[in-house]
Automatic annotation (TrEMBL):
Lineage: Bacteria, Pseudomonadati, Pseudomonadota, Gammaproteobacteria, Alteromonadales
Keywords (A to Z) from UniProt: DNA-binding, Transcription, Transcription regulation
Organism for this UniProt entry: Pseudidiomarina maritima
Name used for this protein in its record: LysR family transcriptional regulator
Top-level lineage group: Bacteria
GO molecular function, a single term: DNA binding
């Protein structure tokens, strides 16, 4: 049997692909640039093919190099899962678990979820990463995260998912602005530029606009916020209204304000919450148990 490529050299290749720079890749791997370069050259010799085209100033990955990167990513991810499996001695809810969550869910879920997991599964080592949907999906693809909690619908890029529950939207505004409005709120009763939304990189904006059937763009204020807490502050100042998910309201985001939560227009004015994982994982039982834990914390659980 021929000698197999080392996991270390495969990791060097992935680092170079990610950073597109030998020096930065070497720093990420905590090795010298010459060590990383020779490791990739050894990998090419073992595989019998050119992975990178080099000259004295630049490099690019060959077509075969790109394919090897994909395979290497799967190999390293599977190896990590094997390690976690061994560390937990095959027990479903023990050992490390790397979870990613978006900013419009994380502050209103992870505190209760962490306490519940600590109480029911004290040997589970939960590591949390909060980021935007697109970034989290990249980290999942690269094997840097095990599972994600995202708002749906969204293109999950071929990954598997559990539908955990539904999170209704409320139209939140200062009580003085809500006095003469009836529910569900008709947007033509609101002034132009009176609805504040998050920046477009947050999927909640698209979900809220679509689910709440806000078709009149003249009602949307050009100001965009980076967090739900900023939107609440704008609304509490009496400047207009915004869409806030029910789970945030239940966790007290409106406490200490003069805001009221009204039912917006829309036959299904809500977002779905899903648990996303790679189709190649061997930890499906773990993720199913995690899904059950999370679903019980949502406003409208839907997990079958």
């Amino acid at each position: 049997m021929s000698k197999l490529p080392s996991l270390k050299n495969l990791s060097y290749l992935l680092a170079l692909h990610e950073h597109q720079n030998f020096n930065r890749a070497a720093q990420a791997c905590n090795v010298s640039q010459s060590t990383l370069s020779s490791g990739i050259q050894n990998l090419e010799e073992q595989l019998g093919c050119q992975l990178i085209e080099r000259d004295h100033k630049s490099f690019l990955f060959t077509g075969m190099g790109e394919e090897v990167v994909k395979q290497a990513r799967n190999i390293l991810t599977s190896t990590e899962e094997l390690l976690y499996f061994a560390q937990s001695q095959g027990k479903t809810m023990e050992g490390p678990l790397r979870l990613g969550c978006i900013p419009t869910i994380a502050p209103f879920l992870l505190g209760d979820l962490t306490k519940k997991l600590q109480r029911e599964y004290p040997n589970l080592q939960l590591n949390i990463r909060e980021d935007t949907t697109s970034s989290l999906l990249n980290l999942l693809r690269n094997g840097e995260l095990d599972v994600l909690v995202l708002a749906l619908p969204f293109d999950v890029q071929g990954n598997q998912s559990y539908l955990l529950g539904r999170d209704p939207f409320k139209l939140v505004m200062h009580k003085s602005l809500a006095e003469n409005l009836q529910e569900p709120v008709q947007y033509n009763r609101l002034p132009d530029n009176s609805i504040f939304l998050l920046e477009k990189e947050h999927c909640l904006t698209g979900h809220a606009v679509a689910a709440c059937e806000l078709a009149d763009s003249s009602k949307i204020n050009p100001f965009t916020a980076t967090s739900l807490h900023s939107l609440v502050q704008m609304a509490d100042a009496g400047l207009g209204a915004t869409f806030i998910p029910q789970m945030a309201i239940e966790r007290g985001i409106l406490n200490g304000t003069d805001l009221v939560a009204l039912t917006p227009t829309g036959q299904q004015a809500s977002r779905d919450i899903g648990l996303i994982y790679r189709p190649t994982t061997n930890r499906r039982q773990t993720f199913r148990r995690l899904a059950e834990c999370i679903a019980g914390l949502l406003p409208e659980p839907l997990l079958n």
